[in-house]
Amino acid sequence: MEKHLIYVNEPIKLVSCDKIRIRGRHTASEQYLEFDWTNSGIAFNFVGNGFILSFGDYCGDAPAYIRVSIDNKDKRRYAVVNGSERVIIEGLADKRHRIEILKITEGEAKLKLDTLTLLGNGAMLRNPPHNSPRRIEFIGDSITCGYGVLGLHTDPTYLTYQQDGTRGYAGITAERFGADARFISISGKGIVCNCNGDRTDVKAGEYYEMQSRTGGVCNDGWIADAVVINIGTNDCGGPAPDDEFASAVKDLVAKVRARYPEAQIIWMYGMMSQLYRDVLRKTIREISKTDKKLHFLFVDTVFGNLEETGANGHPNVRAGIRASNLLYKKLRSVTGWKKSVDLPDED
Question: Percent of the chain having pLDDT more than 70?
Fold first, then answer.
């Protein structure tokens, strides 16, 4: 009978736990760790045969989805509708495991992580996973969020189940490099106006400075080695005049450079619009005369290519792989990074 027993340990409050590694920008209340940016979440190591994750209340208009990665191999997807759900992972081998839990959809409603309950006789948290020596920050819009990547080209609208930030070009690239990554991206936004031409809406240069999608100032000291900017697609909703667009490009580049004086910066463009290709190329070339670590990468559009089109005309996973191949090559060129990452053995 002993092998059929399930040992349930005392819940661990995540907001006050020092053995949890945070992924991405986040906020915290007295009760919860809170995440609203795509691909933000936590990672931890534990010894045991399973765990239960609980949430605080969730008030989004649509379900949020999380990805649970077990030992970098087994990846499972779960929906959170109102926060009363529990993620239960059980039946693992009774040994040390590495877990990563990421919010792979976007939305202003915060995903609140409450407690972690370990399963197994003598189960315990170990030291948190090592940080990668490589850090990439992605700044963008719906393309970077992974909007519609799991949808079909016949899907005219977007639902959260079609989104997975780890399956878009940015998530794929970060995983290929084994990098710690941040995704500062909001669908529909631009640098001058949003996709509907609204100039009063929050712009990339504004939300780039924010701790969460709803406000606050990010000053947590996280330093990127490389920054990929993929923004400007939605400005065709205006459209924004070339001179105003170029001015906004210079402003955003200046903000990124001020935050990361030594980072390689790549402005990537073209997957859903080519309207500003020439002005972007010209503006980046002009800035790079005095900033040798600034680069431009043009990527062909998915329009007209149904094999690369997901929900609501957005790039699907196939398109993300193609774009990632180009970005991966560019990043290797400017950073000197090789394919593998050697991390020290974890306790």
Answer: 98
